[in-house]
TrEMBL record, chains B, D:
Domain of life, source organism: Bacteria
InterPro entries: DhaK_L_YcgS (IPR012737), DhaL_dom (IPR004007), DhaL_dom_sf (IPR036117), Dihydroxyacetone_Kinase (IPR050861)
Name of the featured protein: Dihydroxyacetone kinase subunit L
NCBIfam families, A to Z: dha_L_ycgS (TIGR02365)
Gene Ontology terms for molecular function: glycerone kinase activity
Domain called DhaL: residue spans: 8-198
Organism: Streptomyces gardneri
Coiled-coil residue spans: none
SUPFAM superfamilies: DhaL-like
GO CC term (a single one): cytosol
Length: 330, 206, 330, 206
């Protein structure tokens, strides 16, 4: 076990203590598992609350701040949070204008957020929900759990967060969040499996020199396993998978995301290949973000997310944001 | 009619379940590692430990209240898919038991049927989807006959998930690759019914 | 080889192409190996130029922008750049107010920057140099190569960059850079060795369950190797090593830096332990930065840098910065 | 006096050196991996390939000009510690040769002594610090006697670095742990003098 931890049991609480120390602009409730804007509730503003299993940092706690999330609820590693967290978080950040729950589409997250929504409404909080399900690696069907939520979450949280910051009412923020999700598609690739502290060994076997195409951010297996491919080949495969499904007719935002264990140097090199494919396909790129944003602990690998934008969404993307992991504008 | 069970019986069952889950956590995680995300053992450990602690501190007076409290505690401490599902199972079963201070096996089976239906409704899964329902549904059915029959039915139901392709939960992402593995949730359900039967047997024939 | 690359030979050039695509606010000369502010030269402003071997991203290219570096010169992986790069970069960003070279203390970097300084002066550019040597793991002596430059580089580049942005003349910017360096100390720990693309296998052998205390950012070995330690124990060891040498009498800036392969979740948890030790030692922490800033490819591990600050240095630290990797203020 | 060497001789030497460095890059990287950062092979490959390319395209007219051009090219393409050091060695040696169109071995030895002194001054290292100087200094001394003697002295100098503790360059961070490994730069220096002797022998007795 090559881990910088005390014991597996305290990993999440330790991280929250460390976040609290590093970010005085956030309120971190270690006991209850809530990271919130210190200035929340912001009068008249719709609040955004997200959350999910830990191990995907900076998602979601690193996205809390002006222009993005009002609060985040981290669960145990790879385990969705419990409803109490979301209810408490909602109560803490609701100004009366209502709360949007941003939920990645995993059975656990969906069920816990659903329960939380019911409980929060019992407490008189107006709640709307958006489900993020952008992962094209998973075959979608009415009879399955549906597509997973991955990199698209960043776009939904940023853009809906900007709309909320600009004063949009709950229904409108919800509609924008849904629109963003409907225009986001992702595809992930693993070069190695991640190791959870509790298990202490890789969650799946991936021999060096092989890769898992279509991997999920909890190490869920993907479409197929192949022998090693070059950055160029991976970009072709991943972008094609995304584009075939999205079929964008306008410009896109591109997220070239690292899974946690791949050096930034390689991610930038991969971005060069992604941009090449997009140019070849005639798809204009409005903005590009390269880095580790939606990770899977120490997994080596990457994902590509494209989000088709119109003028309004692009303006909201460019709007100022001030969180630990995403910052721009004034 | 066999004899009737009081609140203490259900507390003892859930304490035994907590021990069993603790003992078998490695197996549950191993199974979840193959077709899920390797946390089912830790999830249930955390949840049932909290249930046992709660019941030891504030033991409710009726069987229904015990199950409702346990279900709530699972929902508040487990997270993941299994937290709301097992939490709902116990909570809705407990609610169905009402205020009764003693409940017999058949009444329990009826109440469990309500709880299992709620699980199916919540998660949208049916028998054959390779989930905990593959153990729960036959177990509850067999509970009408005896605790032992329920235990056996749950075990067989869990084993029967091996050749299935998952259609719900995280294992569904695997598609055909989910075939050949036993479902972790069905396995923990079998564990719960084994402990239920064990507790009933220790306290006299049902 | 679990690498997201095409071939080892093009890794740095590919990354620069990817940087160019992601950051229209920068000028990236892939051929010559120069990353510069697009608005350089800024009239009347002292320019800061740094550089070094690649593989430490976001250092240095990710620190180019208003409030920090004017230009960065990436060398081959773990190999200092050549003088031509620095001379060209200096010529491109010099407004006439002079250029400060920020040089990490490695023989290769020192020699190449020295040659560059001579050549640049021949071209009529006023050049000053600051050597960063903050790594307490290395025994310092007149007869050795001296201490290595690691995490302190970030503080030197940020704070001197703010001084330059505020209009300080070259001599003053140089003096501030030296002051910052003299107040910075770092200590690094490896949980795994990094793998360079050219070599394709780990640069040193570190069995799982052992760690290298005092490791360098090129995988240079450190003070000693030990069996696995907890996050708590590592924090005690690293902070003590830094504090014994720095003996701060005032508040410090703290950088809890990841080496590239350690999840952010663990880094935050490690920060909690670092803050605990600092509190125990009675050292007030003015600001904390947690993340992957001065990395060593995919190495698992971390480093702690403390920088003792007075009011002026703290003000310069807080001053706005707008680079790919470090952004705050307006 | 042996015979004198023209610009072509030095071009051929450096071409042979490029081939040798290419051939031995793995060894050099391996040695640098043990006590450095595993790039010495790649560094010199890149540099000497660029030197060979430059000399093939624009062969300078005098021995001095060849060495100055090669040294500049190394400085412009290698980076790291070895780039400026080897670059300075060739550049300063070349400058010391002046405009002469032919130079004899002894004159070359004198010029090399100037170049080696510049290396020592630039890097601040002395013989015994476990650097390229441990091969260069004895080699240049022995060159006064013969090319073969220079080659042997460089090889012995490189071997003699094994028991030394490094005091300069990256290996110095290792302290006592640098003992027991051969210095990569001393090894590449020995390679250069081996190729020098080989080129001289191929073109007649020195
Ligand atoms: N929709 C569902 N209906 C019923 N049971 C489900 C459903 N989804 C998942 N499960 C059960 O939950 C188990 C996984 O629980 P657990 O690992 O604790 O949660 P998670 O999948 O969130 O990590 C599965 O093995 C399955 O039996
Ligand atoms: N100060 C110095 N003086 C002379 N030679 C040195 C000095 N520092 C390093 N060297 C030589 O350089 C070699 C390393 O070269 P190389 O690996 O290419 O550069 P780097 O150390 O920058 O990675 C060492 O083996 C040593 O022989
Ligand atoms: Mg889970
Ligand atoms: Mg699971
Ligand atoms: Mg090097
Ligand atoms: Mg080297």
């Amino acid at each position: 076990m090559r881990m910088l931890i005390n014991v597996p049991e305290t990993v999440v609480a330790d991280a929250l203590r460390g976040m609290a120390a590093a970010h005085p602009e956030l309120t971190v409730d270690v006991e209850r598992g809530i990271v919130a804007r210190r200035d929340a509730p912001v009068a008249g503003k719709v609040a955004l609350v997200s959350g999910g299993g830990s191990g995907h940092e900076p998602l979601h706690g690193g996205f809390v701040g002006p222009g993005m999330l009002s609060a985040a609820c981290p669960g145990a590693i790879f385990t969705s949070p419990v409803p109490d967290q979301m209810v408490r978080a909602a109560a803490a950040v609701d100004s009366g204008a209502g709360v949007l729950f941003v939920v990645k589409n995993y059975t656990g997250d969906v069920l816990n957020f659903e329960m939380a929504a019911e409980l929060a409404e019992d407490e008189g909080i107006q709640v709307a929900k958006v489900l993020v399900d952008d992962d094209v690696a998973v075959t979608d069907s009415l009879y399955t759990a549906g597509r997973r939520g991955t990199g698209g979450t960043l776009f939904v949280e940023k853009i809906a967060g900007a709309a909320a910051e600009a004063g949009a009412p709950l229904q409108r923020v919800e509609a924008i969040a849904r629109r963003v999700n409907s225009r986001c598609r992702s595809f992930g690739v693993a070069l190695s499996a991640c190791t959870t502290p509790a298990k202490g060994s890789p969650t799946f076997e991936l021999p060096a020199g092989e890769l898992e195409l279509g991997v999920g951010i909890h190490g869920e297996p993907g479409r197929e396993r192949r022998g090693m491919m070059t950055s160029r080949e991976i970009a072709d495969y991943a972008v094609d998978a995304v584009v075939e499904d999205l079929r964008p007719s306008g410009p896109v935002l591109a997220l070239i995301n690292g899974m946690g264990g791949t050096p930034l140097l390689e991610l930038y090199g991969f971005n060069a290949e992604v941009q090449r494919v997009l140019t070849e396909r005639g798809i204009p790129v409005a903005r590009t973000l390269v880095g580790n944003y939606v990770t899977s602990l120490d997994m080596a690998g990457c994902s590509v997310t494209l989000c088709e934008v119109d003028e309004e969404l692009l303006r909201l993307w460019d709007a100022p944001v001030r969180t630990p992991a995403l910052r721009w504008g004034r | 009619m066999g004899e009737a069970f009081d609140a203490g019986f259900f507390v003892r069952w859930l304490e035994a379940a907590a021990l069993a889950v603790d003992r078998e956590a490695g197996l549950l995680t191993e199974l979840d590692s193959a077709i899920g995300d390797a946390d089912h053992g830790a999830n249930l450990q955390r949840g049932f430990a909290a249930v046992a602690e709660l019941l030891a501190k504030e033991p409710p007076a009726t069987p229904g209240a015990v199950l409702v409290a346990a279900g709530r505690q699972l929902i508040s401490t487990v997270g993941g898919a299994s937290g709301p599902l097992y939490g709902t199972l116990l909570r809705r079963t407990g609610k169905a038991l009402g205020e009764d201070e003693h409940v017999g096996r058949e009444r329990l089976a009826e109440a469990f049927a309500v709880g299992v239906a709620a699980v199916s409704q919540l998660g949208g899964a049916q028998v054959g989807d390779k989930t905990m329902l593959d153990a729960l549904v036959p177990a509850v059915e067999a509970l009408r006959v005896s605790f032992g029959a329920a235990r056996t039915a749950a075990e067989e139901g869990a084993l029967a998930t091996v050749p299935l392709q998952a259609r719900k939960g995280r294992a569904s992402y695997l598609g055909e690759r989910s075939i050949g593995h036993q479902d972790p949730g069905a396995t923990s359900s079998a564990l719960l019914f084994a402990e239920l039967a064990g507790t009933a047997r220790a306290e006299g024939p049902a």
